Automatic annotation (TrEMBL):
Protein name: 3'(2'),5-bisphosphonucleoside 3'(2')-phosphohydrolase
UniProt keyword terms in alphabetical order: Magnesium, Metal-binding
SUPFAM superfamilies: Carbohydrate phosphatase (SSF56655)
Lineage, top ranks: Bacteria, Pseudomonadati, Pseudomonadota, Betaproteobacteria, Neisseriales
Residues reported in the UniProt entry to bind Mg(2+): 61, 79, 81-82, 193
Gene Ontology molecular function: 3'(2'),5'-bisphosphate nucleotidase activity; metal ion binding
Domain of life where this protein originates: Bacteria
Gene3D superfamilies: 3.40.190.80, Fructose-1,6-Bisphosphatase, subunit A, domain 1
GO terms, biological process: 3'-phosphoadenosine 5'-phosphosulfate metabolic process; sulfate assimilation
Cofactor(s) needed: Mg(2+)
One Pfam family hit: Inositol_P
The keyword Nucleotide-binding is assigned to this record: no
Reaction(s) catalysed by this chain's protein: adenosine 3',5'-bisphosphate + H2O = AMP + phosphate
């Protein structure tokens, strides 16, 4: 049996192949294609995990929650298709969608993988490497569909550039690949959106935290995790200070 890191990578790669095959030549409407892909990928990943690690817990965006996971140290958290909107659009050239497979142990992401199937790329804690930082100005990735208001103020404070992109996994891996300095989100996410990207980012030497600088903790009773910062480690103090300033200003009368 592969170790946990290799298992996460292997399963993400299997799901990536499936999603690419479903997308190629599929003439189903956007909503139908997205629903089909979510279900097929979830079934494949869940089956492979239960076969390989039957004693571990599981939390998936596409499956009913099993609260037995709360009593387990080892819990896999998966997003079978992160960026369903981008995957399903008629513009099949979009590549900003991903597969997330993550093992958490005592609430911490440990063995994780993020696949970018349209690009043929796979990132994992088995071999996480960080590219050089891009040139200035500071480039901050934000949600394509729900850019947070706080990001606009942070960009003003730092004279930074905001770049919209789909999929949390795609944005986090863009920081890893040296395409941007940071990924900032506020306003609604769940554990499956960030768990695998955070695990891979930390393994590569990036900073990953909540917007208040606190750690990202997983396998909680309520999986809602509304905010996230992933960035170059050397920029973390500057970004967290700007975020704190923007939050203070938002509370002023």
């Amino acid at each position: 049996m592969p170790d946990d890191h290799q298992l996460a990578a292997d399963i993400a790669a299997r799901a990536a192949t499936l999603l690419n095959l479903l997308r190629q030549g599929n003439t189903a409407g956007d909503q139908a294609l997205g629903a089909l892909a979510d279900a097929k990928s979830d079934a494949l990943i869940s089956h492979l995990l239960r076969e390989a690690r039957p004693d571990d817990g599981l939390l998936s965006e596409e499956s009913a929650p099993d609260n037995r996971r709360l009593d387990q140290r080892r819990v896999w958290i998966i997003d079978p298709l992160d960026g369903t909107r981008e995957y399903s659009e008629q513009d099949r050239d979009r590549s900003d969608w991903a597969v997330h497979v993550a093992l958490t142990e005592d609430g911490r992401p440990t063995a994780c993988a993020v696949a970018l199937p349209a690009l043929g790329l796979l990132f994992s804690t088995a071999a996480a490497a960080l590219a050089d930082a891009p040139p200035e100005p500071v480039r901050i990735l934000v949600s394509r569909s729900r850019p947070p208001a706080i990001a606009g103020r942070v960009a003003q404070i730092l004279d930074a550039e905001l770049i919209p992109m789909g999929s949390a996994g795609a944005k986090a891996m863009a920081v890893l690949r040296g395409e941007a300095h940071a990924y900032l989100h506020s306003g609604g996410q769940y554990e499956w959106d960030s768990c695998a990207p955070v695990g891979v980012a930390l393994a590569a030497g990036l900073h990953a935290s909540r917007l208040d600088g606190g750690p990202c903790r997983y396998n909680q009773a309520d999986p809602f995790m509304p905010d996230l910062l992933i960035c170059r480690r050397e920029l973390a103090p500057t970004l967290l200070s700007a975020i704190a300033q923007a939050l203070r200003e938002s509370l002023e009368p």
